[in-house]
Each structure stands twice: as C-alpha cells, then as structure tokens.
Predict the 3D structure of the following.
Amino acid sequence: MLTGAGVSTESGIPDYRGPETARRARNPIRFAEFVRDEAGRQRYWARSFIGWPRMASARPNPGHEALAALQTRDRLTALVTQNVDRLHRKAGSNDEVELHGALAEVICLACRRLSSRAMLQDRLHALNPGFGDDSVAQAPDGDADLEDVEDFVVARCLHCEGELKPHVVFFGESVPRERVHRAREAVDAADALLVVGSSLVVYSGFRFVKQAARAGIPVAILNLGPTRGDELATLKVEANAGQFLPELVARLS
Ligand SMILES: NC(=O)c1ccc[n+]([C@@H]2O[C@H](COP(=O)([O-])OP(=O)(O)OC[C@H]3O[C@@H](n4cnc5c(N)ncnc54)[C@H](O)[C@@H]3O)[C@@H](O)[C@H]2O)c1
Ligand SMILES: [Zn+2]
C-alpha cells in the first residue's frame, strides 16, 4: 500500500493537488533556501509554530483505521506513505515506511540528533509569548500564512546550538536511500500494489508504481481525480478513501 495526502484530507489536513487545493498557490521552502537563508528559516518556523497545533491534534479517519485493520489481519504486508502527519501510526499501523519523514520529529543540522516537535513547540512558546495569537490561514504541511515574522525567535539545538529542521524531506532533498530500499523490497514481494490518495505527481511515490508495472505486479489506484499512474493501473477507483476503505475491509472479512 502506498498512501498520500488524500488519505488524510478527511482528517482535516489539506492535500496539495486535490480538487479543493488546485487554486491555492503554494510556494514551499526549498532545502537550500532553508539552510542558506536565515530569514527563510525564521519564516518557516514562525508559520510552523502557528500551524503545528492543528497538525498535532488531527485524528486518524476511518480510512487510516481500515488500513491498520488490514495490517492486523495480515492482508496488507507493507505500508509506505508519503505523508508526514503520523496519522497511520495514530491509527495503530506499525512499521510503515515514512518516505518523507514526519513533522513530529526535528533534526539538528549540525549534530543530527532527533528530538520531539511537541517539545520544541513548548520552547517556541516560551521564546515568543503571544506570537500569532490572531493569525488563521492554514497550509498543507502544518504551515500558516502570517506577517510580522521578523520578530520571531527561532530555537536552536539544546545539545550543540545547531540549526533545527523538521525531520521531513524538503523540496530539493532526496528521500534517504534506506527508505527507498525498504519500499522497493516491499513492492517486489507484493502480490499487488494499492495506491490511495496520491496524485503521484511527486516522483518519490510514482517510482514504486513504475516498479510494480514493470514487474507485472497489478496496481490498483483509489483516488479522487486523475493521477500520473492511471495509465499503469489495472484498476482505478474514484471514491473517498475514508468511505471506500472500511467497505473494502468489511468485504474481505
Ligand atoms: N497529510 C500529509 O502529511 C501531507 C499533506 C499535504 C502534502 N504532503 C506532502 O506533499 C506531497 C503530496 O503528494 P501526494 O501525492 O501525497 O498528494 P497530492 O496532494 O499530490 O494528491 C492527493 C490526491 O488525493 C486525492 N484526494 C483528496 N482527498 C481524497 C479522499 N478523501 N479520498 C481519495 N482521494 C482523495 C486528491 O484529489 C489528489 O489527487 C507529498 O510529498 C507529501 O509528503 C503531505
Ligand atoms: Zn545539535
């Protein structure tokens, strides 16, 4: 199973390329800019500070729960996700391959230590009392639109004072080799690949559809709207993941 942002829209986390979001122009920060540009980093963390509570409090929906149930019943041998929201884990899935990492973790760019995003939020609160109390607009990755970021105080690594970055793959970064390898092996070993809620525009997910198609492994796609994998799919279903997946589980049991 390969999942994307569409599996989480019913949990209130917007996708990038769904029917609702196509209009909204987004310009996510690229890795090089994050590393190089102090103001860019400050803007990123200020927005993330505002957006985090919504991301942290999102609950898994029946789609995530159905996939966790399939895993428990050994119908699903591997779960690979492009999402960074940890909702599969909150629904009880384990051992998922998080291709793009997770916003719940933070990495120090200097010493590479991982720490918790929730803990960082407390530190940011203490450093920026009252910041953003009246901003609202939300973006897909727990980002928010706001002004007055020049005053925002960014926190540094508690161990080495290094720069902190969310432990997710930014545009301009590549997916760690080990994760790609695990996902590739899982696809190789599978009877079929099911894709849920992904436009497959991002290559890091699309490559597994190509791999399956090349190996003659059937590909089924459950997605609202077109995907880049449609021509390679044996089966395409246009339906809401949160409604369709529980029905699928019910029929299999
Ligand atoms: N929840 C998250 O963690 C999240 C959210 C937004 C973006 N991202 C990141 O951005 C990239 C987005 O690529 P992507 O392919 O995952 O997403 P995408 O936004 O490109 O595509 C999502 C697809 O899901 C469809 N969809 C929306 N709601 C659906 C539903 N209820 N049922 C079925 N289909 C539905 C949309 O029409 C769209 O085609 C990824 O790299 C991901 O890391 C993550
Ligand atoms: Zn450090």
Remarks:
- Residues 4-6, 8-10, 13, 15-19, 82-85, 100, 140-141, 197-202, 205, 223-225, 240-242 surround nicotinamide-adenine-dinucleotide (ligand 1) (CB under 6 Å).
- The chain has a mean pLDDT of 92.
- The helical segments are 31-36, 38-57, 62-72, 87-90, 117-127, 177-189, 203-214, 241-252.
